[in-house]
């Protein structure tokens, strides 16, 4: 095909740009789903002004085993509205940031980056924490 490919710097730049657009679209879509769920609810509102919605919560984490029993370093949980059957919240927790780890071990110099490390506990509790 005789085509050139993107350099890693161009790819990273495109990835950041698209990531920003996707994040905004995702947040907008979640807000629409929550509002739709509120409209279809019984309009129950508690004393603090929060809607009482029925929802399904599910979460998980990868169980990796290559001869050793250990868990992966990421977990996810979602909240799905009962009335719409649409996702109204998603939470992701990561124990490790590969860039931070590379900086700590001296493989790369310290650099400004988006760090996704946001969890220090056991992943059995991730879905409980995210759903609160």
Description:
This protein has 132 residues and is an alpha+beta fold. Helices cover 35% and strands 23% of the residues. The protein contains three helices and three strands; from the N terminus they run αβββαα. The protein has helices at 8-40, 98-104, 126-131; strands spanning 55-64, 70-81, 87-94. The chain has a three-stranded antiparallel β-sheet. The termini are far apart. The model has no long low-confidence stretch (mean pLDDT 85).
Question: Based on helices, strands and strand pairing, what is the structural class?
Answer: alpha+beta
Helix content: 25-40%
Mean pLDDT: 85
Let me know the number of strands: 3
User: What is the CA-atom radius of gyration, in angstroms?
Assistant: 20 Å
How far do the termini sit from each other?
52 Å
Low-confidence stretches: none
Which descriptors apply to this entry?
132 residues; alpha+beta; 3-stranded antiparallel β-sheet; 3 helices; 3 strands; 35% helix
